[in-house]
Amino acid sequence: MMKLRRLSRELSLQVLYALEMNDKPIDQVILDILLLNDNPECDETLLRELVHVTTVNKDAIDERIRSRSKNWDFTRIALIDKIILRQSIAELMFCKDIPPRVTISEAIELGKKYSTEDSHIFINGLMDRIYHDLIEEGRIFPEITET
To answer: What is the pLDDT of residue 124?
Structure first.
């Protein structure tokens, strides 16, 4: 299950990147990405959900990123980092069955794998701030850690 979800996040990232580069319909881009990856075993429901909630809420998510990255000019944030952040924030906000610490951990791993050497640090810091914002807003609940 874990590997299927990780692969689904990676494929979603590829779809979201491809959507930035062309104006093909979402379903066509998803199909293209699945074919390019030799129809991998993934959680296609999660893949489609991530793409959908990220694209539908892109403007609101970008505004959230802008408000929490005061020291960064939004236009200078690497596109892949923006996409990782968008997808991960959408997952935090709309995929209630996934624990926030898993979402944040996966965002960091995506940054390590697909972006620059230090991107995961930027992604971690921003995701942590947004996670706490969402708790304060009552949009998500803090995770209970067992002691």
So the answer is: 96
